[in-house]
Amino acid sequence: MMSVNRVWVQQAVRKIEADFNRSADTHLIPLQLPAYPGVELYLKDESSHPTGSLKHRLARSLFLYALCNGWLNEHSTVIEASSGSTAVSEAYFARLIGLPFIAVIPKSTSQEKIAAIEFYGGRCHLVNSGREIYGESERLARELGGHYMDQFTYAERATDWRSNNNIAESIFSQMRQEPHPMPKWVVCSCGTGGTTATIGRYIRYQTFETRVCAADPENSVFFDAYVTGDNTLELEAGSLIEGIGRPRVERSFTPSIIDRMIKVPDITSLGALRYLEKSLGRRCGGSTGTNFIAALQLAREMHEAGQEGSIVMVLCDGGERYLQTYYSDTWLAERNIDIEPAVAAITACATHGTAMPWELPEHCRA
Please, what CATH class does the domain formed by 55-156 belong to? Predict the structure, then answer.
């Protein structure tokens, strides 16, 4: 006779798969760069997922992975260490299958993200910094007899990178009718490193020529770990750009599938948000700004080399979650951040091909 827990797991998996079946694919949006004719830029808009971000894919994969490994049962409390977006998506899936959810997040997490976690029935457990989320999540899991989902360990293995409509398969399918259907580059940033791993593995599995560029913000160790090969690197400070960049090298970070990394100054990531708002007619999250700067750098290099082709970058989430931070003049002023010079420089670069005064030095490009 099948155990009660086995029946519950089967029902939970069916609910998650039914939710996936109700969802359409995310859009691929072209964005013109007038200064670089022949170089086509596309934004893979992951903000259109039910929970509003790229992390919806990850959360679904993590829940299926945990269920099929026998790590969750009908009495489990799900706990996750997160900077916000993954927690929003995991709260959604926890509610879907009837489990309580606790997000361990830094106090600096935007109020919009906290509200979204609570909207889906999750509870927020705040800690002082991003460095504390790991240990506190483990402690809560032990004390409550719950399951620590641990996105930073399992992100790179929970997703089926061969097919199953992962983000890479979706990108290449949507590019088939474009003028340059095989992208020269796919640009994404690293939070766990899971998305980069999925895209890089899929490209190699399909024997494509496309290369992967990972964009890394300030106060993140990923770039330096990529350059030096030292996975023990740590920082005290956390990234200003929520959702990407880490103070330690996460287990899911897989540098061997990355063809290039670009270190992006925070001021340019924030300036890119204002440029994208005018160009797209909508607001994007901070990590999208980071990705755009790296994509713009690649477009400029391709143009200068006389190359034509396409670049696809990930639009990770919408800007509605950052109205009190990145889009707030008060928030910027409190931190003495003047983004106007960066906005002007980005605009000049994208529309006129003007050399970027903030162009990244060689040690920031690997």
Answer: alpha beta
